[in-house]
Amino acid sequence: MNKNNVAAEGIEWLSRTLAILIVMVGPGLLGRWLDQKLGSNYFAILGLGVGLTLGTYVLILLAKHLTPPARGEPLVDEEETPTPPSA
C-alpha cells in the first residue's frame, strides 16, 4: 500500500469520525444555546438525547455499509481454519 492510499484512507476515517461527532454533540450544543436564550434548562438534555440516538443510528448505518456481506456462507474465524498436516 503506498503512502497516498494510506493518507486518503486516514482522511476518510477522520471525516467519518468528525461527522458522527457533530451529529452526536451538535444537537446538545444547539439545545444549550436555546436554553441560554429562552432561560430554560431542558433543551440541552433533549438535544443530547436526540444527538446520541441519531449518532448511534448513523454508526449502525456505517457499520452495515462497511461490513462485507457473508452471502449466505458462514464467516470463517482465522483461528479455526484447519492447518495442513505436517509430513
Question: How would you describe this structure to a colleague?
Answer:
By secondary structure, this protein is mostly helical. It has one domain. The protein is built from two helices and no strands. The protein has helices spanning 3-38, 43-66. α1 (3-38) packs antiparallel against α2.
Shape: elongated
Low-pLDDT stretches:
none
Helix/sheet category: mainly alpha
Helix content: 55-70%
Q: How widely separated are the two ends?
A: 36 Å
| Largest sheet data | none
Number of helices: 2
Rg measurement, Å = 22 Å
Overall pLDDT: 84
Q: Please write the string of helix (H) and strand (E) elements.
A: HH
The percent range for strand residues is under 5%
Number of strands: 0
The structural domain count equals: 1
Short description:
The protein has 87 residues and is an all-alpha fold. The protein is 69% helix and 0% strand.
Main attributes?
87 residues; 0% strand; 69% helix; single chain; mainly alpha
